[in-house]
């Protein structure tokens, strides 16, 4: 399947899923390379997920959620909770000196947009 087939099948939900993945990755202060090592995917593939250029397969939703330490349904409301948990590669877990952040405090309820940040 060429690029046009991938782009034609991407929906508004895919763009939303990509936005959430990017927001949660940034919240955990992970680079695309860090996250790619955790989930066993190429960093360019993850970038395409985040930009909404590529659909995230259901099995990858669960892996990403585990790596980001969030409920898979936060990424994709259609996520299935009944499957076996995927394997995150713990030997690639980045060290973080930051405390967990309550994401709900970062989201403006009227506009549903988080704070503007710089960086990746």
From TrEMBL:
Residues 21-75 form the HTH cro/C1-type domain. CDD domains: HTH_XRE. Pfam families: HTH_3. Coiled coil: none annotated. One of its GO terms (molecular function) is DNA binding. Residues 70-94 have a biased composition (Basic and acidic residues). It comes from the Bacteria. Residues 68-102 are annotated as: Disordered. This is XRE family transcriptional regulator. It comes from Arthrobacter terricola.
């Amino acid at each position: 399947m060429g690029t046009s087939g991938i782009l034609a099948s991407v929906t508004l939900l895919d763009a939303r899923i990509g936005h959430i993945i990017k927001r949660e990755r940034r919240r955990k202060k992970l680079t695309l390379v860090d996250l790619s090592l955790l989930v066993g995917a190429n960093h360019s593939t993850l970038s395409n997920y985040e930009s909404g250029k590529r659909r995230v397969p259901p099995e990858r939703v669960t892996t990403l959620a585990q790596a980001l330490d969030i409920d898979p349904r936060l990424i994709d409301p259609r996520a299935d909770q009944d499957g076996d948990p995927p394997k995150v590669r713990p030997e690639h877990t980045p060290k973080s000196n930051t405390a967990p952040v309550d994401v709900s405090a970062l989201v403006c309820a009227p506009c549903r947009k988080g704070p503007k940040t710089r960086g990746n």
